[in-house]
Every structure is written in C-alpha cells, then in structure tokens.
Amino acid sequence: MHHGVFIFATDFAVPIDELARAAEQRGFESLFVPEHTHIPASRRTPWPGGPSLPREYWHTLDPFVSLATAAAVTTRLKVGTGICLIIERDPITTAKEVASLDFVSGGRVLFGIGGGWNAEEMENHGTDFKSRFRLLRERVLAMKEIWTKEEAAFHGEFVNFDPIWSHPKPVQKPHPPVLLGGESGHTLQRVVDFCDGWFPRGRAGDDTILRGLADLRARAARAGRDMKTLSVSVFGAKPDPAVLERYAAAGVDRVLYGLPSAGRDTVLPLLDQYARLVR
C-alpha cells in the first residue's frame, strides 16, 4: 500500500516546491492538491465539512501550476489532483494540461476528479448542479478520446467537437488514471463505467470504505471489469496503524494523509510524524 499526502496549496502555506522535496525525501509516494477556482461571496451552499468554510478554499493555487512546480523539483514523487473540478473546466484545455503535466513529469500524474459541492461556484462556470454528473461523464470520456486518439472527436449532450489534433499525448498509457471521488453507489458505478480508480474520503468512515470496496468488486465483476484495472485511494486517511492494517488487508492501494494549509514550522513536523507510518 502506498502512502501520500495532500494539502491546500495556498499563498500562505509552505511553498509547494519545498513540500514536494520534503515529501519525496521522506519516502512518500505522492502529493495531491485540491482545486477551487474561487468561492462566491454569497456563500449560499453549505460546506459539507462544517459551519465555517476555511479560508484556504478561496486562497488555493491553480492545481496544475502547483503540481508542475512539485514535479520539477522531484524525480519519483507522483503528483495528483485531489480533486480537479472537471465540471468547471473545458475538457479540451484540461486534457492538454493533464497530458502536458504527465509529459514534463515523466508519467507521474494521478488525475483525481469529482462532482463538487458548491452550486454557485459551478453556476459561475455555466454548470447546472443537477446535471453535473452527466456533464462530468462526458468530459471524462472526451478527454480520454483526446489522450488516446490522433484525431479525436466527441459528440454528446454537453460536449461536442469534430476531429481535432492535440499533443502532447500522456506518457502513461493509455492515459493517467482517472480517480473518482465520492462514496455513494452511484459513484462506484461511475468508477466501473468510465474511470480507473475510486477516491473515497477517509472521513466517510472505515466501515463505509471497506463496504464500498466490496461493493466495487461486485459491480466490477458484473460489468466484466478486472479489478486490477481499478485502484482504491483513501483521501484523508486516519494515521492509525490499526486502520491502515485493515485497509492494506482489504486491498486498498493508496492512503493520503492531510496536511494543514500552514507554514513550514507546522507542516514539516507533521510530515515527519506521517513518515514514521511509511517506514
């Protein structure tokens, strides 16, 4: 089982290049960053994590700029989005960004995606909250066409383009793994139908994740999908050896520990604590 970390890379946190070097030196497999293009000041949609939205949500750096910086100062560390809000992004442009990052990093990208929770944030990008998962599906499928075809075309309900040329192609073949966040049965079915991995949140609870893993295996078997083609990465795993042993025994591929969006004096000692679990 691989061990990684994630952080809201912001303008007030430890510099992402310093953190990337430190994570690689301590033996972590991967570094993930979340994404929010902005947070509408209306704050109409409640934050699922509690009553007060932390300020890092509207101070977040662009994920692909952050991850390119992290990749440039490391050689082994995998770099991932956790999560990229593809429902707020143009699929042609995003396919180019992911492929470019995979190219310059030598094939080290993990592409975590999700449907998001902030309705007014999506509305600013022209996305309807109720249809966001139909949109997500088409954008993922369109991006896979761009990554794998010399002349890619897509015609759907939301995404439409005639044959295009787009390079570079990703180093990873057929493309970087697409990891879908969420814990519902709908999420698990989408993972089987058009993604490459499941990306549940640790705060959902260990039992929920382990039951979901069993459900995922059953859905994959019914669909004729080999579980070897589907990974499971727990986002925000509890740094508890007993929990980690359960995950490893169940076949979880990766656990990611959360780091606060804070300065080096706070983040690096916590990274050292997590590193003991890696060892």
Q: Describe it for me?
A:
This protein is of the alpha/beta class. It has a single domain (2-278), classed as Alpha-Beta Barrel (TIM Barrel), CATH 3.20.20. It is built from nine helices and ten strands. It has helices spanning 16-25, 63-72, 91-105, 119-124, 132-148, 185-194, 206-223, 241-250, 264-278; strands at 2-7, 30-33, 78-84, 109-113, 152-155, 160-164, 178-181, 197-199, 231-235, 254-259. The longest helix has 18 residues, at 206-223.
Describe how the helices and strands are arranged.
Elements: E1 2-7, H1 16-25, E2 30-33, H2 63-72, E3 78-84, H3 91-105, E4 109-113, H4 119-124, H5 132-148, E5 152-155, E6 160-164, E7 178-181, H6 185-194, E8 197-199, H7 206-223, E9 231-235, H8 241-250, E10 254-259, H9 264-278
Annotated CATH topology:
TIM Barrel
Order of helices and strands: EHEHEHEHHEEEHEHEHEH
Shape: globular
Radius of gyration: 18 Å
Judging by the overall fold, what is the CATH architecture? Alpha-Beta Barrel
CATH level 1 class label: Alpha Beta
Helix count from the secondary structure assignment? 9
Enumerate the strands of the largest sheet in spatial order, edge to edge or round the barrel: 1-2-3-4-7-8-9-10
What is the count of distinct domains?
1
Distance between the termini: 12 Å
Describe the sheet with the most strands.
8 strands, parallel, barrel
The number of strands is: 10
**How much of the polypeptide forms β-strand, as a percent range?**
15-25%
Q: Which structural class should the secondary elements be placed in?
A: alpha/beta
Low-confidence regions: none
Question: Overall mean pLDDT score?
Answer: 97
